[in-house]
């Protein structure tokens, strides 16, 4: 149920991003809201649930944006893997570092995807612009704080609402472990 | 015995004092009555009373006046506040109405342009509305609310009242994805209207086009009109595309570097026309 709700949240974010926040077709100052959800999944969700959410999310983005099918799955999964590895490997588990890390991963993944496209099909892609990408990163970081809180709130509420099955199973009357050697 | 005699005397004296006082008061009242009724003028006593009570009356009257004025002002203030609120509501309503009117006027102008364009070009066209825009930095596409159920097929040209907007490159039963002419992956066959020289117009991802493959020998000036060539039959011939905004003659190479300003204002795109062409246009 939790992945389904987060898919709906992702869909809502993408719709807002592509309709309300895009003032005109060349508008730069629209934050990539879907990317914040990708980062949140990497930080908070386990792999299976993350993949269940990421598949439809990246497909929806592919439909709404771009001309080459597969661009957004590459961006979403690339970013997810990168952030997951960093999250596991990094010695500091401080949530303060997670948002700047997300900005850095956004830059790295987009640069990699852009470089790939400029080799494979240079005519299909516009010129790389540092100011525009920095505007995107800045907006991403600004929007990340409220959205992370919102995701966290939703996640906690959903976890409370949907009690795991193992908590509902019928237990024996004995609530205590037998002492060593006792039966 | 002595005590009883004293009390008798004092009661007698008290009765005498009472009679005396009553007599004096009665006499004074009589004098007052006679003097008043007789001359019909304010006596000294009258004047004295008036002088004594006049200031009190004056203060009370003034205070009452002030109180009345204050009450009146307060009630005015309340009514002014209510009126102010009512006027603000009216003002907001008027502003909203004015905004709606301006919006309706702008929509009307846009739709009128589309209608004029449709009437001037004898082509079957389908009106569409943009419902989503590509948020990426590198690609330039929009989603419109017409799909294969409306007769749209892949490759159909998309225009608005000002000129070429792009072409349909993906579709579903009710929606289509339009590749804008300013997209880097877009290429159009065009003509310089004055010299009739052909070139390939490419999108740059920003609000300009690049016109490629125009030889240096060709006379191209800023302000020259660029129109669709119609080669390949994808776009009808002679549709406005843009205006030459910059011409650079480099020392090396065979071709000119030409920058073209789009005829279409991509910043205000809203309503579009899809040209319903089942077969390629013949030249």
Task: Name the descriptors.
heterodimer; A: 183 residues; mainly alpha; 7 helices; B: 283 residues; Thrombin, subunit H; 6-stranded antiparallel barrel; 2 helices; 25% strand
Structure explained in plain terms:
- The complex is a heterodimer of chains A (about 180) and B (about 280).
- The mean pLDDT of chain A is about 85.
- Chain A has about 180 residues and is mostly helical.
- Chain A has one domain.
- Chain A has helices at about 1-20, 35-45, 45-65, 70-90, 95-120, 130-160, 165-170.
- Chain A is globular, with a radius of gyration of 20 Å.
- Chain B is an alpha+beta fold and about 280 residues long.
- In chain B, the strands form two sheets. A six-stranded antiparallel β-barrel of chain B has the order 1-2-5-4-3-12. Chain B has a six-stranded antiparallel barrel with strand order 6-7-8-11-10-9.
- Chain B has a domain at about 125-275: Rod shape-determining protein MreC, domain 1 (Thrombin, subunit H, Beta Barrel).
- In chain B, a hairpin with a 4-residue loop joins strand 4 (about 165-170) and strand 5.
- Helices cover about 40% and strands about 25% of the residues of chain B.
- Chain B has two helices and twelve strands.
């Amino acid at each position: 149920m939790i992945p389904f709700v987060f898919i709906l949240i992702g869909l809502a974010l993408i719709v807002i991003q592509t309709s309300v926040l895009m003032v005109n077709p060349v508008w730069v100052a629209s934050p990539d809201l879907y990317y914040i959800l990708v980062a949140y999944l990497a930080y908070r969700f386990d792999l299976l649930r993350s993949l269940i959410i990421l598949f439809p999310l990246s497909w929806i983005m592919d439909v709404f944006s771009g001309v080459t099918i597969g661009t957004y799955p590459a961006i979403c999964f690339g970013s997810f893997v990168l952030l997951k590895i960093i999250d596991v490997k990094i010695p500091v588990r401080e949530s303060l570092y997670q948002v700047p890390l997300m900005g850095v991963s956004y830059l790295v993944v987009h640069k990699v995807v852009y470089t790939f496209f400029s080799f494979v099909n240079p005519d299909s892609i516009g010129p790389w612009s540092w100011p525009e990408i920095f505007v995107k990163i800045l907006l991403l970081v600004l929007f990340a704080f409220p959205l992370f809180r919102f995701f966290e709130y939703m996640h906690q509420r959903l976890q409370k609402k949907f009690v795991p099955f193992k908590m509902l199973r019928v237990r024996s009357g004995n609530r205590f472990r037998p002492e060593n050697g006792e039966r | 015995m002595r005590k009883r005699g004293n009390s008798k005397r004092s009661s007698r004296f008290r009765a005498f004092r009472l009679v005396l006082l009553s007599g004096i008061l009665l006499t004074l009242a009589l004098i007052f009555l006679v003097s008043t009724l007789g001359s019909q003028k304010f006596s000294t006593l009258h004047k004295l009373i008036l002088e004594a009570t006049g200031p009190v009356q004056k203060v009370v009257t003034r205070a009452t006046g002030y109180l009345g004025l204050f009450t009146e002002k307060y009630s005015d203030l309340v009514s002014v506040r209510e009126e102010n609120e009512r006027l603000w509501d009216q003002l907001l309503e008027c502003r909203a109405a004015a905004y709606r009117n301006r919006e309706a006027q702008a929509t009307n102008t846009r739709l009128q342009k589309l209608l004029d364009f449709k009437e001037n070009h004898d082509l079957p066209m389908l009106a569409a509305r943009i419902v989503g825009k590509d948020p990426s930095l590198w690609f330039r596409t929009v989603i419109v609310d017409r799909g294969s159920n409306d007769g749209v097929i892949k490759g159909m040209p998309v225009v608005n009242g000002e000129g070429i907007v792009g072409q349909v490159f993906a579709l579903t039963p009710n929606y289509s994805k339009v590749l804008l002419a300013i997209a880097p992956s877009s290429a159009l066959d065009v003509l310089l209207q004055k010299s009739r020289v052909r070139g390939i117009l490419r999108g740059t991802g920003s609000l300009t086009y690049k016109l490629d493959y125009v030889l240096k020998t060709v006379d191209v000036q800023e302000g020259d009109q660029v129109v669709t060539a119609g080669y390949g039959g994808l776009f009808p011939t002679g549709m406005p595309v843009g205006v030459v905004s910059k011409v650079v003659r480099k020392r090396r190479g065979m071709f000119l570097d030409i920058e073209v300003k789009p005829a279409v204002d991509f910043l205000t795109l809203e309503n579009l026309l899809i040209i319903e062409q089942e077969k390629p246009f013949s030249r």
